[in-house]
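[agent] plan:
  1. take the single chain provided in the ticket
  2. run structure prediction with default settings
  3. attach structure tokens to the ticket
  4. add a short note for the reviewer (M.T.)
[agent] executing step 1
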Amino acid sequence: MSDDQLEDGAHEAIIYDEDGLPVAVADLDRVSTRGMWLAFALAAESGHLERFTPIINDALEGAGDEAQYILTAALHTLGGLLLNDALTIAESAGVDMRGTIRAVRDGEDYPPGGRA
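[agent] step 2 finished; step 3 output follows
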């Protein structure tokens, strides 16, 4: 992708295929806005997984070639901002959630001894 500044201030990125041919143009402002909205909408409904699919569908409606970039922006916001803040708060209360998350990621037996 290459980033170009347009006269009106909007940013666009040209998306290339594996052969280096341009295949689409992504509006980076729209990608960023939709990605941020998706991250916060999912976080707000985190206790209600049944609401996730409609939220994701709303965020990606009409996105076309930008969909993967919207999802990437949302994941970046969820992991780098929202989850990080929640884990930092947990750590300040003496709860090592990062360690637990790493253990699950690494396939360790968690909780130790398995579930009761």
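[agent] step 4 note for reviewer: The first helix runs from residue 28 to 44.
[agent] ticket updated
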